[in-house]
Amino acid sequence: MSDAMFDHPSLNRCTSLLERVHHKRFDANYSLLITGLSGTGKSYFANTYLGQYPPVNTPQLKIRPVVYVKLTETRTAVDLLLQIVKAFTNVVGNNVNKAHIVQDRLSVLLREHKVELVIIDEVQECLTDIDGITSQRMAKQIAALLDNNPNISLLMLGTPVAGRLLRLRYGKSTERLKGEEQLSRRFLAEQKLHIIPSRCECWLACCNYFSDKYKFASFSLEDKQLLNRLHIATDGRVGLLNKLFSVAQIIEQPHFWKKLEDAYLASINSSAFNPFNTDMLSDDDVIALLDSREFQ
Question: Which residues sit opposite 192 in a β-bridge?
Fold first, then answer.
């Protein structure tokens, strides 16, 4: 990615691996699974990468090097394929209940639009609560998608439970043991986006990234009390920090701290507790809270 978000070890590692997967820098065409807790920035990471490869309009059609799909509830393998197809068109044709027909339709679309990478967000929606035949069919369908379209790679994003996809075994119903396979052979090792720790250069860089995005003044180490309160408010989660700043920019308050206090109530937590209220939470209280989190 030519325009990195900010320096953070897990983010940098995921970015580097995604670039190599996308541009086929390995001996084999591997795909990538990135997991992380809600709010750690998976979707933001994906959309930032997507922004580096905008569609190109031609007289015939739109070339789309990278395609982004955010899954909703996905009950069957056909549901999975249809949600990818609908990233291109709402016209899906007849026999949409047959996986092989939808698979063929999708393959045509991927070739026509010269797709190199498909990003599938919220991939845990493919899984049932207990691993069984439905989850195995999902893993098998993802494997078939890659095998039938050797010129594309996948980036899958999800909560930690999505890691089960790479551990599922599947096979032919008549040759269960002989035909058993795992999706993992088509993927690199599962990567994880982590919460950013407080009181470090990474957190300062993260806050400045979003401060610049929403046209606020930059932070320095002298702003440590506010940086600490931002960490308490967001738990070091990129998605929540982005949400907080995006709401703060439209709050009509002259003082930045008051903007954040009102934005926190509007976007993250409407309870009485507010980390930007200095009467409610002293600087020493903030330090104690950060210490208690890091020791947990």
Answer: 35
Binned average pLDDT, 10 residues per bin, the chain of 296 residues: 73 96 94 96 94 92 95 91 92 72 93 97 87 84 94 97 89 52 92 94 96 96 96 95 96 94 94 90 94 78
CA 270 to chain centre: 26
Take residue 175 and report the two structure tokens written for it: 């040759």
0.85 exceeded by pTM: yes
Fold assignment, 9-192: Rossmann fold (3.40.50)
User: Can you give the residue ranges of every domain in the chain?
Assistant: 9-192, 201-295
